[in-house]
Amino acid sequence: MIDPRFYQALGPVTVRALAPSADIGGDPERLVSSAAPADQAGLTDLCYFEGKRGATALTNAPAACIITPAQAHLAPNAGALILTDRPRGAFARLVPALLRPRGFPPGAPSIDPSAKIEEGVQLGAGVVIGADAQIGAGAVIGPNSVIGPGVTIGRRAKIGPRVSIAFALIGDDVNILSGAVIGEQGFGVAGDASGPIDVPHLGRVIVQDRVTVGANSCIDRGVFDDTVIGEGTKIDNLCHIAHNCQIGRGVLMAAFGGVSGSTVVGDNVTLGGRVGIADHRKIGAGATLAGGAAVFQDVPPGEVWSGYPAKPLRKWLREAAWLSRKAGARNEGE
């Protein structure tokens, strides 16, 4: 469900009004008021479906489903079908007519009167706080930081200078260093007849208690689901966590690390400097990824991986030793 603290509903609108030039099957007068993933869409939701070969039919009943003509039979319960060869691109174009991210109206005061600021909060010069934001007791917000509408910041949090926080719920005793950006739209791009188009992100960022986020690090909000940073996790400077990632408790992430979208990192994982993890991977609890590792596979719990591409440390060391011997023998024979 889209969180109304962060997104304004613009509907309802009929399917025909939403997509006036589209090829529509079913009821073109069906009302649509929100958006959701295909497998979660309800009676008032717009969704899109791009099933792979052999995909099973949707069992739910969305108000409207954007789908290819060849797969239209896989959404039998949809109130209406919007038929196109590029469902995701069409979805990206239509969603802004239904939902608008809350922002800062022109001429709004730097601290909105509706913001709830508890006792003992310290605000630096130039701080901006949006409508309906909540700041917990004892929090410190550094100069020129921007706290977006609806954002919640827990008690005793420390927010450094020039931090941007939007579409996010921040826990107690969180420390966010200067220049960090929490809750911006992630890198989601869909193909369209006119070229690449940005896919709207309608999720949130959840930062649990006692997390540290280093200077100039970025954590993207989810597309629909939340991006979650677990309790006690420590993120170094200049790191990036993409949309929909689930980062467990007690994770340590050194500088220049990057975690691609929809990856799950288990509790107490250690990521060395400059580690990169591909999208939709699972890193098991207690695993260690050595500095510079490029991870393209799932990593079992407790294992140590290294290398480019990353593999179990002992295997990587054996291969490196074999290559060194072969290279040395060749040099001796020249």
UniProtKB/TrEMBL annotation:
Looking at the keywords, is Zinc-finger present? no
Residues that span the membrane, as ranges: none
Q: Which residues form the active site?
A: H243 (proton acceptor)
* One annotated GO biological process: lipid A biosynthetic process
Major enzyme class: transferase
| Catalytic reaction equation(s) | a UDP-3-O-[(3R)-3-hydroxyacyl]-alpha-D-glucosamine + a (3R)-hydroxyacyl-[ACP] = a UDP-2-N,3-O-bis[(3R)-3-hydroxyacyl]-alpha-D-glucosamine + holo-[ACP] + H(+)
- List the molecular function annotations (GO) for this entry: N-acyltransferase activity; UDP-3-O-[(3R)-3-hydroxyacyl]-glucosamine N-acyltransferase activity
Known EC number? 2.3.1.191
Pathway(s) where this gene product acts: Bacterial outer membrane biogenesis; LPS lipid A biosynthesis
What residue stretches are annotated with the UDP-3-O-[3-hydroxymyristoyl] glucosamine N-acyltransferase non-repeat region domain? Answer: 30-95
Protein keywords? Acyltransferase, Lipid A biosynthesis, Lipid biosynthesis, Lipid metabolism, Repeat, Transferase
* GO terms under cellular component: membrane
Q: What is said about its interaction partners and assembly?
A: Homotrimer.
Q: Which family does the similarity line name?
A: Belongs to the transferase hexapeptide repeat family. LpxD subfamily.
Function statement: Catalyzes the N-acylation of UDP-3-O-acylglucosamine using 3-hydroxyacyl-ACP as the acyl donor. Is involved in the biosynthesis of lipid A, a phosphorylated glycolipid that anchors the lipopolysaccharide to the outer membrane of the cell.
Protein name from the UniProt record: UDP-3-O-acylglucosamine N-acyltransferase
